[in-house]
Amino acid sequence: MISFLTKFLKKSKPQKRRGLLVDIHSHLLPGIDDGSKTTYESVKMIKLYEKMGYKKLITTPHIMWHRYRNSSEIILEKLEYLKDALADHEVEIELEAASEYYLDENFAKLLEKKDILTFGENYLLFEMSYTRAPKDLREIVFDIETAGYKPVLAHPERYIFMHEDFGNYEELKELGVFFQLNLNSLAGQYSKNVQKIAMELAERGMIDFLGSDVHKISQLETLKKVLASQTLQQIFEKNDILNNRLL
Ligand SMILES: [Fe+2]
């Protein structure tokens, strides 16, 4: 664990470096959640992803009924709009959209209607309260799977209520939940505790996807450092990371 931590930010040898080509979690569609505010900002951020070597971005605006009342239609319409803007600026990176679904009543209705934006082969990205477990989490996971989707928990390291007992994570994995780690958690963007849990999940080989979860330009600076770090290379060695299969 300690060696894993101390190696963070040490640059890996370029010839051995494995790169991340696909991102599956970000907030880059302008003006529909707490991410990018303008088209200008979105284009600027996406150019930076391109510079860092990404080939495809699957951006995931929030659908969270008490804050961001988005729908598949709103997201897909905004996606087309942004793709046009990218073409105007000759940005060639591939852009797709899914959503980061908050587990609420609206989500249950969308699931029932199968009105869900997925990525890859039916992966469904979801999040929940950081402080309190949904009382019927097992049931919700079961409903997602029964509907034919593969549940991907966004940033498992950020749920404070799960930190005390690692069994919480093991239980979700046993239920078939995929884990998406936020890359910037490794650099301590959220808290020391979140960083520690992120490292531990990675050490135990429990990570399936890596995501940037970028909301604003400044977070891309941190992301750049994480992508160049030895820690990322160790994560690739210890975990079966699925991002690049989505190309
Ligand atoms: Fe997010």
| Average pLDDT score | 94
Percent of residues in helical segments? 25-40%
Bound small-molecule species: fe (ii) ion
User: Any idea of the CATH class?
Assistant: Alpha Beta
**Which residues sit in consecutive blocks of at least 5 with pLDDT less than 50?**
none
Q: Largest sheet, order of strands side by side?
A: 3-5-6-7-8-9
Number of helices: 10
Number of strands: 9
- Taking the alpha carbons of the first and last residues, their distance comes to 32 Å
Tell me the β content: 5-15%
CATH topology: TIM Barrel
Give a short account of the largest sheet.
6 strands, parallel
Class derived from helix and strand content: alpha/beta
The rounded Rg comes to: 17 Å
CATH architecture assignment: Alpha-Beta Barrel
C-alpha geometry: globular
- What's the name of the CATH homologous superfamily? Metal-dependent hydrolases
Topology order in helix (H) and strand (E) letters:
HEHEEHEEHEHEHHEHEHH
Number of self-contained structural domains: 1
Provide a concise account of the structure shown.
The chain is built from 10 helices and 9 strands. The protein is an alpha/beta fold and 247 residues long.
What key phrases describe this protein's structure?
alpha/beta, 247 residues, 9 strands, six-stranded parallel sheet, binds fe (ii) ion, TIM Barrel, three-stranded parallel sheet
SSE diagram, text form:
Layout: H1 2-6, E1 22-23, H2 39-51, E2 56-59, E3 62-63, H3 72-88, E4 94-97, E5 100-102, H4 105-113, E6 123-127, H5 137-146, E7 150-154, H6 160-163, H7 167-174, E8 178-182, H8 192-203, E9 209-211, H9 218-227, H10 230-238
Parallel strand pairs: 1-2, 2-4, 3-5, 5-6, 6-7, 7-8, 8-9
The chain binds fe (ii) ion.
